[in-house]
Amino acid sequence: MTDASVAPTTISSHEASHFGALAADWWDPKGSSAMLHRLNPVRLGYIRSAIDRHFGSDETARHPLAGKRALDMGCGAGLLCEPLARLGADVTGVDAAPENIAAAQLHAAHVGLSIDYRSGDTGAVAGERFDLVTSLEVIEHVSDPAAFVAGLAGALAEGGLMVLSTPNRTPLSRLTMITVGEGLGRIPRGTHDWDKFIAPDELTALLADAGLKVIDTTGFAFDPVRGARLTDNLSLDYFVTVVAA
Predict the structure, then answer these.
(1) What angle do CA 77, 210, 157 make, to 5 degrees?
(2) What is the biggest distance separating any 2 CA atoms in the chain, rounded to whole angstroms?
């Protein structure tokens, strides 16, 4: 008998196992997560700009998130949580793979950061509210995107800010991320299922259904010559900045 008061999980056990197997290597910039390390400065730049615009902070301020709570959903081993903590936030990181949480806790302790890491999905923060909610390259890995977005919406505090990123479902993303990226070993094999990629209009609709609105959409590109960068072209990957409707 199912308890109707308990929200169904959005965790895909297959996806959690895949990423959990990479946990020990997550912080190695030359390991299986090397691509994440290369992308992270651009991701952080986009998030910092969104923070400054939304909260009115000075772009030179060292701790623009001081006094604010931040949630990174699908945090892996903490590549985003740690910079958010350094920006002054009280950070909670949640991931479906317990192995990732263990690696995140170990690394945070090693560098002297206090971060609240939890294993699970959006249910792990049920009833809590956060000024900043982030979830980068995660929604394409969950079992129920609509329920996942609803969980994120429920965690967003009044006046809060949300930043998401995900691959677009286009021929370019299939070629770049799967045929080339995974085929040549630059991305661990089995990381992506192209059929689960989400187009911008589809994500916008999911967010609207959850009472949220997109206020910015920016493309995210990567090539061997120019590296990672922001772009107006959404055909590979993209960010959205989101607030309550």
Answers:
(1) 60
(2) 56
Helix axis angle, 200-209 to 145-155, nearest 10°: 50
Q: Which domains does the chain have, with CATH numbers?
A: 13-244 (3.40.50.150)
Please report how the helices 98-111 and 13-20 are oriented relative to each other, as an axis angle in degrees rounded to 10. Answer: 40
Taking the C-alpha atoms of 236, 241, 244 and 245 in order, what is their torsion angle to the nearest 10 degrees? Answer: -60
For the chain, how far is it from start to end, CA to CA, in angstroms? 37
Could you list the pLDDT tens digit for every one of the 245 residues in the chain?
333 333 457 876 766 666 766 677 778 887 777 778 888 999 999 999 999 999 999 999 999 999 999 999 999 999 999 999 999 999 999 999 999 999 999 999 999 999 999 999 999 999 999 999 999 999 999 999 999 999 999 999 999 999 999 999 999 888 888 878 778 777 777 677 888 999 999 999 999 999 999 999 999 988 777 788 999 999 999 999 999 99
Q: How far apart are CA 206 and CA 235, in angstroms?
A: 19
Burial pattern 43-67, b for ≥16 Cβ within 10 A else e, equals beebbbbbbeebbebeeeeeebbee
- The helix (run of H) or strand (run of E) holding residue 243 is strand 237-244
The pair of three-digit structure tokens given for residue 237, joined into one six-digit string: 């990957």
Task: Say how far apart CA 116 and CA 108 lie, in whole Å.
Answer: 10
The pair of structure tokens assigned to 68 is 């604010």
